[in-house]
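call fold(seq) -> tokens
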Amino acid sequence: MEAINLTKQQARKIILEAAGLARKAQFGKGIEAVYKVIDHLGFVQLDTNYVVERAHHHVMAARVPDYQLAWLTELCDDGQVYEYFTSDAGFLPMRDFRFSLPVKEAFKAQYESVSQAETRLRKQIMDRVERDGAVKVGDFENDRVDASTGWWDWRPAKIALERLYLEGELMISRTKNFQKVYDLPLNLVPGDTDQTMPTAEEYARFVIRRTLGALGISGAREIAWRARRVKGNLVKQELEKMVKAGQLKLVSVEGVKSPLYMLPDQKTNIKLSNDVFILSPFDILNVFRHRLKDFFNFDYQIECFVPAPKRKYGYFSLPVLAGDTFIARMDAKADRKQKMLIVHNLHFEDVKLDAGVIEKLVQSLKAFARFNQCREIVFTKSNHKAYLKAISKGLAGL
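ret:
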């Protein structure tokens, strides 16, 4: 099949439309819009970093005006959304539940060889949950034998609970303080949910369609990433079959390594509103660094995983997008006690911003501060004094 030729600008518009960032409120408003975001993207990554509001809430707030944190919990409690893994931990629409089963089987194979002590502990946990209801890690005595050697040196009860969750024997809900609560699937999965195991081909085709729906245009590398927990998955083989059958389109974008793929019904005539979005590092748009560089000429890295002396922009630098251009990165921290959003570094990219973009950035900063329960914004550092002065003037009386 002959590839469709696109310019980078055309490709960026398709990518942003697919990500839900072509315009403000692309999915509408209210809790219904939150479900639409999750259902459209198919997966919203969860992260526990709390320097600013957690990533999964940040993703929603960027797309749904006046987003309320309780809405995601309500969707989970109503059985419309659940927490589990694809490539990483996150929130998924319940209607896709059956496609989590191959991942659970993969984890079962990974943890097939466990000690007798863990086998006994797992049975004790399952008996307790079945008898008494949902549990938290804190409900179990500290059963550590040796001293902890670090964050990931979990005690036996924590390990057993996590493995039971990953294998699908238990599921997770969350307390208001974001603590995990482990429960039986029958208590969290609606009775009419399809729980039949998909074939390897069905699973691969599901991953392909879901990923392309969220990315717009993608290479095999990014598509296969969502299925990375399932060893020997058929994603690459099914990609070729779907192209031959006309169920996918091949795409060629100037200066970007081919082959690239797109859904056959993907719109290509897209208009952007040129709104400004302050994004999470774990937003679907930002998780593939090479993709940002290829399509947006934006060399980005989240630096919380980088040793402090080697950081260029800050611990938790947030990408700032205007239209189809990344204009800045903002290293911010929410001081919730003082109701203050501290911007340690507002670093502007080498792009010229007009008064209209500055005004939209000001409005986005105000909304971001409110979302983080802050009433004031303080800037510590910036590489562009004129832009910072204009922004500070616009923020007066926040």
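The longest strand covers residues 325-335.
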